[in-house]
Amino acid sequence: MAKKIYRTARGKKLDMDQLRLTNEETIAVGNMKVNARGDELGKGGKIIKTRNQVMKKHYKQPNKQVDELAPTKKV
Fold first, then answer.
1. Inter-residue contact 7 to 13 (CB < 8 Å)
2. Which has the closest alpha carbon to 36: 47, 25, 52, 51?
3. For residue 50, what are the contacts with CB-CB under 8 A and spacing of at least 6?
4. How many domains, in total, are found in the chain?
5. Cβ neighbour number for residue 39 with a 10 Å cutoff
6. If you average pLDDT over residues 22-51, what whole number do you get?
7. pLDDT value of residue 70
């Protein structure tokens, strides 16, 4: 991954990759109950499902929109 170092309006340097890595365990703001990495959280901020488990489940589900648009056979 390439290092992205930005300069703020005040002239300070900001390393976005380092900022992401340091805060990936932080609970995200909102009502989704996930951390910054995307892991599902339970009570007390404990990880229930990792980001990889969530994504595998998402991609295993059939895409209903594509199934509806598929041509049907006429008999």
1. yes
2. 25
3. 39
4. 1
5. 21
6. 92
7. 60
